[in-house]
Fold this sequence. Notes:
22% helix, Nucleoside Triphosphate Pyrophosphohydrolase, 9-stranded mixed beta sheet, 9 strands, alpha+beta, 5 helices
Amino acid sequence: MKVESDSYICKDYDGNLFISFEQYDEMVLSANPLLTHCLAVVKTGEDYLLGWNKWRNRYEIFGGCIEKGETARDCIIRECHEELGLDSFDVVYLGAMKILMKPDYFSPNERIEFGGLYGINLSDLNIDDIYEKIKDKEEITKLALYSQVKNKEPIALIDEKLLEYYV
């Protein structure tokens, strides 16, 4: 699958290409067979919360794979419960990410995937309190604000670009 070098937004360390950000209707996106995952940009004041993914050794935004029978919204609510321990929160649908994925753990083939992007605002954030509530501490081993780790620690490049979509 060839994508012209100037026809994508961002390329990550693994060679995956963030091709476009599109304003699909949320329910139309949920019915798209290419929808594989959902991500959430978590904003706190003027900063963003990131989680350290122990398997990929970098900070990322939160989210994960769609499970059978889930809508995009169901997925992000479940993932935020697992990765942030959130039980009650407002989530805003922002749009759909189109990504050219290189072969990886999930597939031996290069492929186009769509992902739902959501925004969450946690105005009264206490990182220590949030960390105590995380259900999936196998994957997310620490939390940090973007301003604390920018240019100091590895951050997933596509995820860093996605912060711009929730201002």
